[in-house]
Write the structure tokens for this entry.
Amino acid sequence: MRAGEGLGQGQYAVTPSGELLASAASADPKDVAAMMRQGLAKWATMSKEQRLLRQSPDPAAAERWRKWDRLYPADGLVLRAVCRDLPREDVPAHLRGAWNQDFAWFRKAEARSFLPAELRIDTRCDVPRPLVERLARFHLTDFVRALNYAWFPAEAVERARLITTITAVDGDRVGVRFQGETRCATPDPDGRGYEARLLGKATYDRKAERFTAFELVAVGTRWGQGNCNLRHDDPGPAPMGVVLTLAGHSPADRIPPAHVGRYRW
Amino acid sequence: MTIRSRFAIAAAAAVALAGAAPVPEITDATYARWRDYLLPADKDLAYKAIPWRASFWEAVVEAQAKDKPILLWAMNGHPLGCT
């Protein structure tokens, strides 16, 4: 069953037994609401035997295939990354407000390594390069219009530096400032890249051993096309930004990063 | 007027002069403005008000128990993540 032409992306109303009630492939909430009403009308005509499974499904069955979810770093650092074009006039009107999101994960020890060993005002450290490269390769990419299957290979990383400075210590709360830069570029004919300056701040609770606040903003220039990210008519160079903040704890905030498989966890 | 629209007007003036989209500078002085520009607005996050289940199977289990239909949102990439 497909909601429309193409890849099958869309909205589906279905029964637990697997029967299709209705479908739509629309970003218009009115279309989705109409589809849901259509689905409910069909549901009302079905017997229990038609709409339900004969046996109750095993809740544990999904664990066999949700392998990335099992890696969620509950005691680590989970960030939401939001990517957006910076102000430009040469973008079609219907794409001007486009933004997208992803998540970035760091394990507990990795999160701690964002800070100096000694948590004293004015102490500084370089965030370990592998962690900055994780950001540069998989999260500071052009996914504004759509998921970009073209992350940056390791050899594309030209610069990846993030410096942490302790700005305040108040009991268990440690305030920090981030400053850095990244640049990833692939050679022709691929010819894409993103170069950014980074600035941010965070609060780390040394008793709880976790960040309680986190912001990191990347502002810079992207160029080239990715893979499936709808830049075929907009290769740049053009300004783009990414902001990373602490994710929440709802199920919607625990989604594995798009490229978590590349973390090599 | 939103922060985003204020920046659009300022950038439009710069584009008219330079002929290309300027790359903003991020400094301590401009940090908060660019952070707020990039962050999604409340209306952008309205979808989170719906109590989505993170996987189809969770919905199947619950819908079977409650005798209810399922609304499935299918995308390339996870609809609650990067699509």
Summary: The helical segments of chain B are 3-18, 31-38, 56-66. Chain B touches chain A through 50 residues (CB under 8 Å).
